[in-house]
Amino acid sequence: MGIVLWELPDLVLDQEIRREIDTGTGELSIRFEGTGQHLGKLPLLFMEDGGSIRVANNWLIHLKANLRKKEVNTQAQALLHYFTFLNEIGMSWDEMPISIRLRPTYAFRKHLREMFKQGELARSTANSYMGSVINFYKFYLARDHFFAYPPFKYEVVRLHRNSSHEYMRNHFIHVDTTDLRLKLPSDTRHFGLSRKLVPLSNNEWQVVESVYKIRGIGISTSAGEGNEVPLSEECKLAIDLSRYSGLRRTEIISLRAKQIYKPDAEQLKKKYLINTDGLLLDPRQGVETKNGTIRTAEIHSELMQTLYDYINSSRYIKRRKKYEEIYPENKDNPPLLLNQNGKPYAAKTLDARWGEIRNAVRKELPNFNHKFHNLRSTYAVERLKELLNAGLKEGKALDYLQSVMGHKSRATLLGYLKFCEEETMTANEVHEKALNIILKSDK
C-alpha cells in the first residue's frame, strides 16, 4: 500500500473539546471551542487507505507548533521518501537490528547515494532528505523512544574556518554531527552548476516552445492517467517572462500591471528594452525580489507589447475587477497575473502547470527533467551569447548580465559563460558542418 502527502488547509491546536450527550437519543456530539493555535497549511503523511502515519505527523506538527517553522514541505517530502522506502523494504521505522548496514537509516543513506549516482536526485536534495531523517530520529531520541540499537552514532568533526581577518585564520571549529553524512562528490557535469541552473539546450527549448506556445496543451497525471489539459494565457506569459527577461518565479507572480506600457515605434525596433525602458522590480511597489533588492530587468520589446495587449484584454479586466473587490486597499496596484477568481497567481499553480508542460515534452524527450527555474538560466546563457556575438567584451557582458539578473555572485555567471564557450562553434566548424550536410544530401 502506498503513502501519500495530504496538505491540511489550516491545522488548529489547543482548542477546548466540548462533549454533549443528547438525553433523548443518547447520541454523543463533540465540538471545539476557542480560537486555538492556527498553524496554517501543513502537509501530513497518510497511507492510501486513509490511515495516518502518526510518528511522522507528530514531528511535522512539532516543527510548526513548537519550533515555529514557516514551511515544512521539505521535511514532509523527505519523510514521504523515507517511509515509502521503508514500505518497499518491509521494515518499521524503529526497527534497528544489531548489524549497522541492516538498520533502515543506513540502508536509506545507501539508497540516496545510489539515486544521486544515477542522476535521479540532486546532491542538495539528497543531503536535505538525509538531514531531515536524522532530525526526525533526534526528536524521538530526545523523548526516550525505545530503539534496540541506535539509529546512528554521533561524531565530532573538526572543520577549518576560513576568514579574511588575520586573527581568525588557521582556526578550527568542532561540530557535532552523525555518521550518516552522505559525503557526496560535487556534481561537475555542468561546470559546477546545480541542476536547477542548467539551461535548456536549443532542441529542448524548441520542444517546450512547441508545447506551450503552439499546441498550448500540457499533460496532467494527477488522476493517475495522462490527460491533456489546456494551458492558460497566464501560464504562457509567466514562461515568456522567465525565458526572455530572466525573472525569478516570485518576481513573476508579484509583478504589477502598472509596470507594463505600450512601447512606441522606436522601442519596438530594439530587441530588448533596457535601463529606464525595462522592468523596474521594486519591493516598495509590491514586487518580491531576492533579498529585497531593487533592480531593473530588461524585457524583450515584443513581449512588452504582448503584455500591454493582455492587460487591456477583456479577460484581464474581468479578473482585475474581481481583484479590486477582494483587495480594495490594493485596487490601484493589481498584479499582472491573476487567476479566474481575481486572486494573485500562486507559485504552486505555476509549478503545477510547468509539470504538465514537462509531461508533454517527455513524449518527445523522455529524459527531460528541467524545472521552471531552468528557464532563467536559459535566458542568461542565450543573452550572454548575443552580447558576446555583438562584440561586447566578456567582462562588460558579465557585468551587465549580473546587474539585470540581480546576481550577487559572479560564480554562477562564470558557469553560464562555460556553457557559451562549449556551445560556440568556430567559423571552420560551421563550414565543416555545412559541408557534411551538403555531402549527405548528395548521397
Automatic annotation (TrEMBL):
Residues 195-429 form the Tyr recombinase domain. Keywords: DNA integration, DNA recombination. It comes from the Bacteria. PROSITE patterns: TYR_RECOMBINASE. InterPro entries: DNA_brk_join_enz, Integrase-like_cat_sf, Integrase_catalytic, Tyrosine_recombinase_XerCD. This is Site-specific integrase. It comes from Pantoea endophytica. The lineage of its organism: Bacteria, Pseudomonadati, Pseudomonadota, Gammaproteobacteria, Enterobacterales.
